[in-house]
Specification:
By secondary structure, the protein is of the alpha/beta class. It is built from 9 helices and 8 strands. The protein is globular, with a radius of gyration of 18 Å. The model has no long low-confidence stretch (mean pLDDT 94). The protein binds NADP nicotinamide-adenine-dinucleotide phosphate (NAP).
Length: 306
Amino acid sequence: MSALPEKTALITGANAGIGKEVARQLALRPEMARIYLACRNEDRATAAKAELEAVSDRRIFDIVLMDVADLDSVRAGLAGIDGSVDALVMNAGVIGPQSMELTAGGVTTVFATNVLGHVVLLERLLAEHRLGEVALFAGSEAMRGVPKLRMKGPSFVSTSADELATAIDGSYFAGMKPDFNLAFGQAKYIGALWMAYLARQYPDRRFVTVSPGNTTGTRAASDLPLPMRIAAKYVMPTLGLAHKLDVGAKRLVDGVTDPTLSSGTFYASAANTLIGPMVNQADFLPDLANPSFQDHANEAIHRFIR
Ligand SMILES: NC(=O)c1ccc[n+]([C@@H]2O[C@H](COP(=O)([O-])OP(=O)(O)OC[C@H]3O[C@@H](n4cnc5c(N)ncnc54)[C@H](OP(=O)(O)O)[C@@H]3O)[C@@H](O)[C@H]2O)c1
């Protein structure tokens, strides 16, 4: 009997929530030979590694220290990894920071964490011919707005690179009260467009955006204002509007292991839902399939990478 080909995966934000559960589920697959846990805090990463080894009974986890909001940290973390990565899971993300604080590079923390560090990570892997098969970006239904949580969806006027850049440096909210949830939805929207752009440039690999859906058992809602925190943590699960951690994480695992999920596509819950079967979001949000918008997202993002 021939041996299974050995696979490697790298998961950002792998010490908690969905990222850690993705690591656990991937470790159940016998072909998975190495899983890099890319985390920003060594103690939390070490604790997660020990827990994953105990629950999976496998010794295939390596810690990579990487703060995705800091581009130099991303570059240094990646330099410490030998060889290629078959599956990259760009999961690290924050929704909650209730500030429009900017990084040293002039980018909002929410954009830097959810998107910009991942751009540097994935594009460097591509440039060095080290992405084996698939890259997955953790999207969110927030990019189309979530009326049940009173979250507005991005509604850009022209979706030009200039306009998208205002969502990256926070100037979109100049002269008005910032809407932090909208800033999160804008980041996920621009990230999904960028992934679709890459899918067109690299037809031999898969680039998928997948939302885990409204998932309990994570810390994602912890920094939200109290009413939203209560709604997310208690009301929505009670009403059956959220699913459990293993279900949300499995969506991301399917994204990297199921080759029938198409490159350049953003999969998330059907319209007006936050859980259930995943559908192609471009079916009701044609922006996502617009090559000009994809190009503009790519151009806007690269204005902030030095
Ligand atoms: N939960 C949901 O309902 C839901 C819905 C839609 C989309 N999502 C998306 O799914 C992904 C995972 O969310 P989650 O619910 O699992 O959130 P979570 O429980 O808050 O976990 C987030 C993970 O990201 C890491 N992280 C945050 N900032 C980082 C940075 N600068 N550098 C490196 N790692 C960083 C965190 O590490 P630390 O421990 O160091 O903070 C943690 O490991 C996110 O992209 C989120 O937007 C979640």
